[in-house]
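Notebook, p. 212. Picked up where the previous page left off. The plan for this session was modest: take the two constructs that came back from the sequencing core last week, fold each one, and keep the raw output in the notebook itself so nobody has to go hunting through shared drives later. Recording the first one now, exactly as returned: residue sequence, then the structure token string.
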Amino acid sequence: MKGQKGSVLLNKGAFAGLFHRLARWQLLHQERNLLATLSDDALKDIGLNRADIEQESHRHFWEDPLRK
């Protein structure tokens, strides 16, 4: 096919959903790690305890609590 630039044309937004999910997973991972580093007093200030953090740190990456 003369003048054809590629065999597959990709829509610019074809991978946008995937990249959004990967970025969201990375953010959740970072937040869970930061929560694990907080002191017990700091956790108490935000209404959490060490057991809450332990439970949150064992969640799978596809378990998005905000479901976005």
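Okay, moving on. Second construct, recorded in the same format:
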Amino acid sequence: MQQLLTLINKYIVLIVLFIFLLNIFEFLIILAINSKYSKLKRQYKNVMREIGTNDIIEILSENIKKTEEFNSKLDKFRMELSMINNEMKAAIKKVGIIRYNAFNDVGSDLSFSIALLDSEDNGIVLSGIYGRNETATFAKPVERGQSKYPLSAEEIQAIDKARKAII
């Protein structure tokens, strides 16, 4: 114990100086923390003044409620979008039209074949045959670009033109 007291007496000036510097360092840290706290408190008060309330819990609960409403509406929009996408698959997206003369004695390309197809090349091909004395119209179903009924060259051209159409 005596040796410890002798050591302390020998270095008392350095120990006091060290403690003094440590206190100054601690004081500076406290000033920095206090400055940041004051700035944060001012910002908080400004925000609360702009919002018109002093209760942060009220603000948070209101934001949570709005977020839940937003998520509910977003889910509803996603369902509607899914339904629209399903309907769009069956919508007519591709059209191919071929006009031609069905008979040599009739001009002006008054006969036609028109293919109306969806994105999977399903639909119909309509043909109108114009003659001087009569006109006939035919409709044939198309599945994956083919029909189970015999197709004329013009109907095949109309289907091919529709299949190549850009969606």
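Notes on construct two before I forget. Residues 12-51 form the longest helix (40 residues).
Flagging for discussion at group meeting.
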